[in-house]
Structures are given as structure tokens and as C-alpha cells.
Amino acid sequence: MNFGPGPSVVLNVGGTRYSFSREVLKDFPLRRVSRLHGCLSEQDVLEVCDDYDRERNEYFFDRHSEAFGFIMLYVRHGHLRFVPHMCELSFYNEMIYWGLEGSHLDYCCQRRLDDRMSETCTYYAAEEPNGGPEGKGRRPPGAEGRKWLERMRRTFEEPTSSVAAQVLATVSILFVIVSMVVLCASTLPEWRAPENRSVEEQSRYTAESVREPSGIIEAICIGWFTAECIVRFIVSKNKCEFVRRPLNIIDLLAITPYYISVLMTVFTGENSQLQRAGVTLRVLRMMRIFWVIKLARHFIGLQTLGLTLKRCYREMVMLLVFICVAMAIFSALSQLLENGLDLGTKNKDYASIPAACWWVIISMTTVGYGDMCPITVPGRILGGICVVSGIVLLALPITFIYHSFVQCYHELKFRSARYSRSLSAEFLN
């Protein structure tokens, strides 16, 4: 920063003045303040603050002075807490303005913020480089020509972005529901083909199944899903990233089996290997159950579950390690106590350690089918210890997974609220 006299600068936030040296601004913990060090002109400064006095080298910020005072306490002492008698969301808005996030808050205040956000669907986003009135006039060349492509992308990717997106999402959900109803109904005895058909009859039945009402409905649903997937692929920005996305992979797994089954039916014909192909066809048709996961594209709950599993894979691996270690210990001990010792009566259900692993996992998860149970007194004592240990081990990582679930839910809810605001603006226009 090569303008303004004096070796220090003054920040005036809501009437309260703070003096700093230029070198302190370079590595200042608040991102908005540290940006002043890289400003080369007054125009750059006015993009960061509200006003600037060159003579006194003073920067004016029209923000909440008391909230900034608590933020300065965080800069000095490393603890950030809410201002008493101030709305949590308003203080969070001040935090985002200065470049802080919810993770900088102390744990007690984080819980208050989570509860407050759960009650209100409010979205706070960091300022974009080209956002606001100043950035609207500096669009890159060709931005107007790509506007319709971005609108199409949002229509297919964000169900709450516009009226057309909501209609499209509703139609897609209806197709998923219809396809699931047809899949469930096709397993009823009245709908299934008799098992005692000959090879020729089975071939004729397989070839003509697509002409039945259920086959026609299935073909229509597949046609809709295929067209939707193709259009979303065409309007996507990055084709490679589009293919790698989990929801798109699920769409591909739900669509591909139908075309494979049709090709197998066409090429198999009345071949003698049709019976073997028939089993494969039934497996491929049953893979249509993946269509249910397509609902994750339109429901925040399923998206939250997937995002939580993605972010908590370390905790999930830790949980599996806990279970595997406990299974190894308790299965070996139960096999020894129930079958390994010569006590006159041996429990044949615990003849081996792999067989005992089934009893351990059922006991640790407190399911208790009752198909296997210890009969000796030491075995029953071990069973009680196994149940209690399972409750403790399964409960340990749950806290981390719960907090991650809450955070993911808020993020997706805020993104949905952002597009809902754009939908409201569309209605007003």
C-alpha cells in the first residue's frame, strides 16, 4: 500500500477507532482488513471499506462497532463469542463480513448458532469477487451468450432455482415413484411368469414382455431418465467431473441394466442358453431399485446423508475397526468357552471362530436373533460383556458423525434457501 502518510493506519468501525501499523495489516487474522495491505489505489481501497480519508490515512467501515470489538478480542486472545443481547445471525453476518467462519466460534456459541439456524432457513454466503453492483458491469466476454446455458444447468441441477426447475423435479419424482410401483408389482405372483415354461415359451415371453403394460411403462420411464441424463451431460461445464459425480454414477447404474437386458434378449433369441441368460436378466431388472436413490437429487435429507458419509469416512472406518477388533476378541473367547474346553457339553453353534463371529456382531448391535446363544456360565458372562462393549464402542464415534450431519444439513439448507430467494424474485418479476 503506497499511499497515505504516516507509518500507521486507522480503522474506524461504527465510530470506534483502531490504530495499527502497516506491517500488522499484512498478516492480520481478519481477511477483509488484511486485503487493505495489497491495495494499490484508492479505488481498490473503496472496494474493501466504505470510505477513506487520505489525509489521516483512516478507513471507515459502516458496521456494528460492538460486534467488531468482540471480533478484536478473538484477534488478541483467540476466543470468539457472541455479543450479549445481540442476534446470533446478525453477529454471524458480521463475522462473515470480516472474513471469519462459524468454526472460529467457541463450542458453546457454535451450538447456539446451529440451533438458531435450524429454526430459521437463512443463508449467508461469502462475498463473491464479482458480486454486488460493482461487479455486474465487469462480465467476461461471451457471458451473455452463455447465460441460457447456465439457466439450463440450474434448471436440471437445482430443483428450487426456478419454476421450471420445480416442475421438472416434480415430473422426475413422479417417474421414479411410478417405476418403483411397477417394480414392486412385477414381483407379485399374479404378475410373474410361471416357472414351468419351456425354453421356447420362455423365449417368447421374454421377447414380448416389453409389449405388456408394465414393459411399456418401464420403457417410458427409462426414456425419460435417459433424456434427462443426456441433457444434463450436454449442459454441464466439466464433462469429466460430471461423470465422476456420485449421483450421476447412480443414474448410469439405474439406466444401463435396462439396455443390457434388452440387448441380451435380442441377441439370445431362442438359444439354448436362455435359461442362464434369464437369471442374468432378472438380476439386471432388479437393479432398477437404484432409481430410489435418484430421489437424493430432489430431497435435502438424502443429500445430507450422502454428504455426511463422504465427510465422515474416517469416523466410519474407525467404527469398523472397533467392531472388527471386538469381533476378533469375543469370537475367539466364545469359541473357547463354548466348544474349545472339555466341559462335557459342547455348543455346536460355536464350532469355529467364523461361526462365533455371527453371534458377536448380532450381540454387539443388540439385535439378538436368538439363533445362537451361550449355554455355559462363562459364555453367558462373556455375552453380557460383549453386549455392553458393543453399546460403548458404537456410541463413541456417533458424536462426530452427528455434528457433521448437522453442519451438512445447514449447508444444503442454506443453498436451497438461496435458490428459493431467486425463485421468489422470479415470481415478483
Automatic annotation (TrEMBL):
This is Voltage-gated potassium channel regulatory subunit KCNG3. It is found in: Cell membrane; Cytoplasm. Keywords: Cell membrane, Cytoplasm, Ion channel, Ion transport, Membrane, Potassium, Potassium channel, Potassium transport, Transmembrane, Transmembrane helix, Transport, Voltage-gated channel. The keyword Ion transport applies. One of its GO terms (cellular component) is voltage-gated potassium channel complex. Belongs to the potassium channel family. G (TC 1.A.1.2) subfamily. Kv6.3/KCNG3 sub-subfamily. The chain crosses the membrane at residues 163-188, 247-269, 289-309, 316-337, 349-369, 381-405. It is a multi-pass membrane protein. GO terms for biological process: action potential; protein homooligomerization; regulation of potassium ion transport. It comes from Peucedramus taeniatus.
